[in-house]
Design goal:
The chain is an alpha/beta fold and 301 residues long. It has two domains: 105 residues, ATPase, nucleotide binding domain (Nucleotidyltransferase, domain 5, 2-Layer Sandwich), CATH 3.30.420.40; 171 residues, Exopolyphosphatase. Domain 2 (Nucleotidyltransferase, domain 5, 2-Layer Sandwich). Helices cover 46% and strands 23% of the residues. Strands 8-7-6-9-11-10 form a six-stranded mixed sheet, with helices on both faces. The chain has a five-stranded mixed sheet with strand order 3-2-1-4-5, with helices on both faces. The model has no long low-confidence stretch (mean pLDDT 92). This is Hydrolase. One of its GO terms (molecular function) is pyrophosphatase activity.
Length: 301
């Protein structure tokens, strides 16, 4: 069964067209565009017209690819930014006009469930798992083994924390200390809510995690096959985080594995990743390239 899944988050909008056969998923198209839909939402409470237009343009391209692929089912899930915005109806109307389907503005708990479903299929490491999906506006925390047991969404993400705290280029020590206090409080709340410290295996999802993994492994270019299910130690994550925070955005852009749309927010994302590891007591994290997109696709089939 050929299906099309779209994940529209605070920073990126992503498309997966895949053939699903039972527990097996075969990619036809997997692509991403950085649209920064949530730009300024933490401050204004609204989606900016320019951000909506960037997202519309990306979705128009996706709609054409979906039509050519002859996918039999389409589902779009919109996450943190479109949950928080006061003008979310304008965004939903735009999506309906472009894709012909309504976007599902899902709860953080549903986002966590779908991310968990995509992340743990085919994972050889033992459960129970603590899965964290580090997005632009929020981070989802979910625990379970075969199915979700507990989940929570916290309003800490790489875009939100950058806009709230990290204004310098590179950020100052004071800015970093404020961000770390904010993130630590949210992570401790999440871990207590889901029992994260009792999990045997930590799994990290989304672009911050996979980019940090690529840097930790010293890859000459972004290679999803080498990143997927690779393990990164806390020491490596701490090293990469410190290096990123000491760089300007221009210097980060020169890194061969860095997506241009992630360079200005990767520092905050790496801080969140490091603190999740520190506060949960895990000395290593498994990076997964499979996440909410895969969960949406499996759900469609």
């Amino acid at each position: 069964m050929r299906v099309a899944a779209i994940d529209c988050g605070t920073n990126a909008v992503r498309l997966l067209i895949a053939d699903v056969d039972g527990d097996r998923l075969t990619d036809v198209v997997r692509t991403m565009e950085i649209v920064r839909l949530g730009e300024g939402v933490d401050r204004t409470g609204m989606l900016a017209p320019a951000a909506i237009e960037r997202t519309r343009a990306a979705l128009a391209g996706y709609a054409a690819r979906i039509e050519r692929s002859e996918a039999v089912a389409v589902r779009m899930c919109a996450t943190s930014a479109s949950r928080d915005a006061s003008n979310a109806q304008e965004f939903r109307d735009m999506v309906r006009g472009v894709l012909g389907v309504d976007p599902e503005v899902i709860t953080g708990e549903e986002e966590a469930r779908l991310s968990f479903l995509g992340a743990v299929k085919g994972l050889a490491a033992p459960g129970p798992y603590l899965v964290f999906d580090l997005g632009g506006g929020s981070t989802e925390f979910v625990t379970g083994t075969d199915t979700v047991e507990r989940a929570i969404s916290m309003d800490i993400g790489c875009v939100r924390m950058t806009e709230r705290h990290l204004h310098g280029d590179p950020p100052t020590a004071r800015e970093l200390a404020e961000a770390e206090r904010d993130v630590t409080a949210a992570v401790d709340t999440a871990l207590a809510a889901v029992g994260g410290r009792q999990a045997r295996t930590l799994v990290g999802l989304a672009g911050t995690v996979t980019t940090v993994a690529a840097l930790a492994h010293g890859l000459p270019e972004y290679d999803s096959a080498r990143i997927h299910h690779s393990e990164i130690s806390l020491a490596e994550v701490s090293r990469v985080t410190a290096e990123l925070l000491g760089m300007t955005v221009e210097q980060r852009l020169a890194l061969p594995v860095m997506h241009p749309g992630r360079a200005d927010v990767i520092g905050a994302g790496a801080v969140i990743m490091r603190i999740v590891m520190e506060r949960s007591g895990h000395q290593a994290v498994i990076a997964s390239e499979h996440d909410i997109l895969d969960g949406i696709a499996f759900g469609l089939a």
